[in-house]
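Standup notes
- DV: blocked on the single-chain target, sequence here:
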Amino acid sequence: MSILKNKKILITAGPTREAIDPVRYISNHSSGKMGYAIATEFLRQGAKVILISGPVNVQLQHPNLKLISVTSAFEMYVASSLHFNEIDIAVFAAAVSDYKPEIFEKKKIKKSGEELFIKLVKNKDIAYEFGKFKNDSQLSIGFALETNDELMNAESKLRCKNFDMVILNSMNDAGATFEHDTNKVTMIDKNLLLQEFPVKHKSEVAVDIIKMIAGMVINKQFVLEGQ
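- DV (later): unblocked, structure below
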């Protein structure tokens, strides 16, 4: 029997959209494929999954799946925070917008002049908020998509967001990150131990990630039982 059977898992997936006016928004190229692949593998292991998803073209159905569709970063934060106290493991795989327009224009912005300035304000960091109060029995796993100083930036996220593991993607790796069916990851745990993997289909990457998480669950249970 899988160590993950009946564990409660929170997964965020896909992009968020931050509205500028009724017809325009700020977003990114995330397809949600990685997050959905992770959800699929957790479900295969018998876990109970709450999948909070931004707008994607991926579909997933399962009796143990609760799918919550959201659009903005704030909506994703609210939906996630409602489940923080009840989950065993959180996997923050969504590409959440760091900033949003300070003002949402209720009418379409008309073209005028050569420049348009939009003031952006910071969104809540969902993983950071969870990391502030997660208890000793919970695990938090995050993703770091980087274009430069990859390891340094990933390790910084590991510390400041209280992750138990961070999964590093580099935009410099061919066949990885957004819109691909494949990915290339490096997993970094709290002891800064690295495990690098070659380019694989995202379903295979999900298997690798969840094997690592299962090992962390076993270690955590061993430590808690010994206290």
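- Follow-up: The longest helix spans residues 202-226.
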